Amino acid sequence: MKIRIAIAGLALTVAGTASATDLLGSLKSQAGNFSMPEMGSSTMGNAAGVLQYCMKNNYLAGGDAGAVKDKLLGMVSGEPPQQAGYASGAKGLLQGTDGQSFDLKSVSGKLKTKACDYVLKNAKSMV
User: Which domain of life is it from (predicted)?
Assistant: First the structure.
């Protein structure tokens, strides 16, 4: 009896929140497409640009991320491919060594924060 009441209550709660269900479906859809490109020394400029994008849009705090970004830029300054990578990264496009790319503008909120954390973590290992 108690189990039926709990299930019925859950069913009413779920049925009464159609917009929450739509939101959950949207998040699952976005999470299912959340695949990050490989990062490496050939993408340091791009990683620096993405860190700039993340800090500018408040997905990362400036302190640690800013220091890592500056170190990466110091390692790649003057190299045209790295400069082009920085420019696209600063627009929110993460480009990987594996040929994959990920547009941070294509996801929302928490997924952007996770993507920015991913870039920061990998960028730290490059410096």
Answer: Bacteria
User: Do 53 and 97 have their domain in common?
Assistant: yes
Instruction: Quote the tokens at residue 94.
Output: 């993460």
Residues 58 and 109 in one domain: yes
Task: Note whether 76 and 44 are within 8 A (CB).
Answer: yes
The structure tokens listed for 125 are 């290992």
Give 94's contacts (C-beta < 8 A, 6+ positions apart).
36, 37, 39, 46, 47, 50, 101, 102, 103, 104, 115, 119
As a whole number of angstroms, the distance between CA 42 and CA 95 comes to 10
Mean pLDDT of the chain: 79
33-74 pLDDT tens trace = 557 899 998 999 999 999 999 999 999 976 789 999 999 999
The DSSP letter of residue 107 is S
For residues 86-93, give the mean pLDDT.
Answer: 95
Q: Which is it for the CA torsion 55, 60, 66, 68, positive or negative?
A: negative
Number of domains in the chain: 2
